[in-house]
Amino acid sequence: MSDAVISVRGLRKSYGEVEALRGIDLEVRQGEIFAFLGPNGAGKTTAISVLEGYLERDAGTVEVLGEDPAGAGRDWRARVGFVLQECRMEPLLTVRETLEMYAGYYRRHRSVSETIELVGLGEKADERAGKLSGGQQRRLDVAVALIGDAELLFLDEPTTGFDPSARRAAWQVVEGLREIGKTVLLTTHYMDEAQALADRVAVIAAGEIIAAGTPDDLGGRREAETVISFRVPDAAAAGARAAVGGDWSGSNGRLELRTGEPTRALNELTAWAIANGVDLGALEVARPSLEDVYLELTGTDAS
Ligand code: ATP
Questions:
Q1: Model confidence over 182-216: pLDDT tens digits?
Q2: Which CATH number fits domain 225-286: 3.40.1440, 3.30.70, 2.60.40, 1.10.10?
Q3: Is the pTM of this model over 0.70?
C-alpha cells in the first residue's frame, strides 16, 4: 500500500478566463516535508486551497489523508492544520490563552505548554498576542495549527517578512515538526528555505509542475558541472589554463573553470599551483545553487 498522505491527479482550476492550475499531478508521502516553489501567480495558493478543502476544483482527483477534501467532514478537518498567509489572533489574549481557546475546539489536542515550547514561545507564554513581534505572531500561528495534533500541516509562506534570525528560528520549528513525524506541505519564495527544509520540492509555473525532485537533484543539479574559481596574478593565468583541462573563462580578475570532473581538476590545479609557488586566491568550488536552477527553470533569470 502506498504511504501517500496527499495524492493528486490531473488537478485543474480556473477563475473565469484565468487557468490557475492546468493539470497537476502530485504525491506527498507520510512524514515528508514538501515545498511548492514558483513565481507570483503560479498557482501555489490555489493548489493548497483545493487540498485544504477551501476551494472547489474543476477537474482531477484529489485525496488527502485518504479522503476527498471537497466532501470531508469534521473528523478529517481535525487531522489537518493550516497556517494561511494572513492570520490574525485575538490581540488581547495571551499566547497561552489563545492556545487554550483553540485546544477547546478539538476532542483530542496536544498539551498547550508543550506546543508553546515546540514553537519557541516559552518566554512569551503570558504575553498578549497583540504585543508579539511579527515573527513571534507567526510562531503563534504555527502553534494554533498544531494544537489539534494534526497529522498534516499546510504552511503558506511561513517566513515571509521575517528577519534572518527569525527565519532560522522558524526553520527549527519546522524541523521539530519533522522530528515528531508530521507531514508538511509548505510554499516559499526562498530557495535557501526549500534547500534547508524540504525533502522534495515541486516547481509550479503558470499552473503546471515543471520540475520536481529533491533539492539536490532538481533540474539535473546533481549532474551539473562544478565551477572552480580563484584569483591568480595575470602572469600565472596562462599556466593555470594550460595545466588543467576544462571549460575556462574569466571575468573581473577571476578565473573560472567549469568541469564535470571536479576531483581530477582540483587535483591537477592544486598540484600545478604548489609546483609553481602560486597562491589560488579566494578559491571557491561551487555547484549551481537551487536558486540558479529555479531561475533557469522558470525563465526568470534577469542576467
Ligand atoms: P503568490 O506567490 O503570489 O502567492 P501563487 O502561486 O500562490 O502566487 P495563486 O494565488 O494560486 O498563485 O494564483 C494563480 C493565478 O490565479 C493568478 O493568475 C491569480 O491572479 C489567479 N487568481 C487567484 N485567485 C483568484 C481569484 N479569487 N479570482 C480570480 N483570479 C484568481
A1: 999 999 988 889 999 999 999 999 999 999 999 98
A2: 3.30.70
A3: yes
Could you tell me the distance, in angstroms and rounded to a whole number, from the CA of residue 171 to the centre of ligand 1?
Answer: 26
Pocket test for ligand 1, best of 46, 49, 191, 210 (most atoms within 8 A of CB): 46
Gap from CA of 246 to ligand 1 centroid (Å): 45
Atom number, ligand 1, closest to the C-alpha of residue 48: 11
Counting ligand 1 atoms within 8 A of each CB, the residue from 19, 22, 45 with the most, and so the one to mutate, is 45
Give me ligand 1 centre to Cα 161, in Å: 20
CATH code of the region 4-220: 3.40.50.300
Supply the residue whose CA is at minimum distance from atom 17 of ligand 1: 41
Pocket residues for ligand 1 (CB within 6 Å)?
15, 18, 20, 38, 40-46
pLDDT of 60-92, one tens digit each?
A: 999 999 999 999 888 898 899 888 766 678 889
Ligand 1, atom 4: closest residue by C-alpha: 40
- The string of DSSP codes covering the chain is ---EEEEEEEEEEEETTEEEEEEEEEEEETT-EEEEE--TTSSHHHHHHHHTTSS--SEEEEEETTB-GGG--HHHHHTEEEE-SS----TTSBHHHHHHHHHTT-SS---HHHHHHHTT-GGGTTSBGGGS-HHHHHHHHHHHHHHT--SEEEEESTTTT--HHHHHHHHHHHHHHHHTT-EEEEE-S-HHHHHHH-SEEEEEETTEEEEEE-TTTGGGGGGSPEEEEEE--HHHHHHHHHHS-SEEEEETTEEEEEES-HHHHHHHHHHHHHHTT---EEEEEE---HHHHHHHHHT----
pLDDT for 171-180, tens place per residue?
A: 888 898 899 8
Domain assignments of the chain as residue spans, ordered by start: 4-220, 225-286
Same fold for the domain at 4-220 and the one at 225-286? no
